[in-house]
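Title: [Solved] Amino acid permease 3D structure

Original question kept below for reference.
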Amino acid sequence: MLAIAVSAISPTTSVFLIYGDGLQIAGTGVVWAFVIGSAIAVCMALCYAEVGSVFPSAGGAYTIVRRAISPVAGGVTSVLFLLLGVVSTAAILVAAATYLSSLIGAAVPVQWLALGMMALITALSIGKIAPASWVVAAMLALELAVIIVFTVVAFAHASAVTKPFTQPVTAGPGGALVGVGIAGIFAAVGPALFAFNGYDWPLYFSEETAGSRRAIPHAVVLSAVLAVVVECVAVIAATLAIRDIPAAITDGSAVEFLARQIMMGPAGATVLVAGVVVAMFDTGLTANLGYARVYYAAARDGMLPRRLQPLFGRLSARSRVPVHGFLFLFLGNGLLCVFMSLPKLITFTGVVIAIVYLLVALSAIVCRVRDRDLVRPFRMPLWPLPPRPWVIGYPGEGCPRARAATPSLVAARRNSACTRGADRHVGTGGGQRELLADDGGLSGSTEPLQALVIPVQAPNVSGMLTRPGQGGVQSQVGGIHRGRLLDMALFEQQRPIRMPGGLHPAPGLVVGQRVIECHRAP
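Solution (posted by the thread starter after getting help):
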């Protein structure tokens, strides 16, 4: 699993694919962009590891968001992964084909070389996972050797011209050097996140991996740390080796430009570029293996349109892999390889990845605060710091304003007045609404709460507490999760709660009946 994760990140691919764009955006400030991106990547890896260990599934991030936040958010994530699957691999293969074309000097257009690579990746993907894993591991060893050699040689040719940590600069009009501000550096953080993306890949093989449930989250964190160290050191080395900053920035491939200068002439550069092509192919293969499994999990859980569910939710009889998902990826990536440019593919991928990160960070907060009773094979250190880079406005459970704004997502006041009134019984037949209780004014309104229990598939029956709003629109002020009543005043796990007013919500839930009771405590 560690080999697959590091291959999905692919330090070699990341540096050779992303570094040039980052250099054009932020100049030598690309070093700071990668440092900032690495901090975010490690924080997100901790979030993925914890919530992924709680909800292990081939759906990975899609399953995390669906079970931690809501089926709707999970559906959004599945759509984002549909897009990522047919964009990110295409971006990698177009870059690989560009390097391959310069290496062999073929008259074949870059787009058709990329399409041929995609066909080969599809052929390798439709077999069992074990042979593909061996191919990935062998290519990973080669690509790590390439990036290590490049880094060592670049450090050996370090120049005093560039001072990326203290004086980041870029090329201005007429080739003059101008300083790079914070805005320029942060503009390059997006591509840097794309460079580190892939550490979550072990989660997508959770259902095919034997052994301890701690192995998967450990692989996620370890792969992120390895990628951060290798890539940041390589970026620093490459930047320090630049002697002509304007020429490096304006060159179409900054790293190849450096390789020709520091790798013992054209022969050394050719060997390096060949290794880069292998590394990028390896990354494309790993990405393809994971995305098809996300599609399978989404179809299995009913999160794709009905007509698509039988297609993506079917495994081949022989290899037990989602063959139709691989065919869809081949068609989608193949079209983009032929008709889309590399900069557009990279930019779009970075935006989608940022949205997925936000959803996973929110899931980590919700899961830790709300589902405290769940078994966690892995617990992130330094809680609650890791998810905060992506959830800037989340002030924590000690803030009353936070509780008022997002009552169903943050920890609640355990000793506050909660529900008052007579016995109520809430059934779920067709998603009907019945009066449950008054919220004691905690939500800033005297309107009674209503319960809407959404019939969904077992075992995670969920619903939400709502209050009538303007125009008959229901506003959410609490929730029902796994048979437990969650509202803005208090919630507990696994045991009954004695609430003011003598009401006693039963925490158990009979899945077949899908009924939640609220009755007088004895």
